[in-house]
Each structure stands twice: as C-alpha cells, then as structure tokens.
Design goal:
This protein is mainly α and 79 residues long. The chain is 68% helix and 0% strand. The protein has helices spanning 6-41, 48-65.
Length: 79
C-alpha cells in the first residue's frame, strides 16, 4: 500500500464522524424551527401549546447533544 497518505485518510474518517455526530443536532434545530413557524402562522390552532412545548424540548435536546467541534457549523449562542 505504497503511496497512501494515512494522515489524509485519518482526516477524512474524522470528518465523516463529525458529520454523523452533527446531523442529529441539525435535525433537532430544524424541528424546533418548524414548530416555531407553525406557532407564528397559526397561533390559535389547537396543537399550538404542543408545538411550543416541542420547541423547548427540541432545543434542550440539541443543546445537550452539541459538542465543541460543531461550533464552526452550528451556533447556539445564548441571547
């Protein structure tokens, strides 16, 4: 296996691992955004209370799952 750039191979594998770890956090943030948009569009809808609860839950799970290496791609700054 002459000519294999092992440093490059290791970097690529690490990048894939970071992407796989980041994907669930991105999904949770997207779900929170969808629920937020629903509450804004239909504030008097029957499931609005459930949507608001979902926003809090999704954001809490995203924050718990967030890792420092994700900071480059996902910002979760406190207001």
């Amino acid at each position: 296996m002459d000519g294999v750039d092992w440093d490059d191979v290791i970097e690529e594998v690490e990048d894939v691992g970071r992407l796989e770890a980041r994907r669930p956090v991105e999904t949770l943030l997207l779900q929170a955004l969808v629920h937020l948009l629903k509450t804004a569009a239909w504030p008097n809808a029957q499931p609005c209370k459930r949507w608001r609860s979902g926003i809090v839950g999704f954001l809490l799970l995203a924050k718990r799952s967030f890792a420092p290496f994700m900071r480059q791609r996902i910002s979760v700054e406190e207001p």
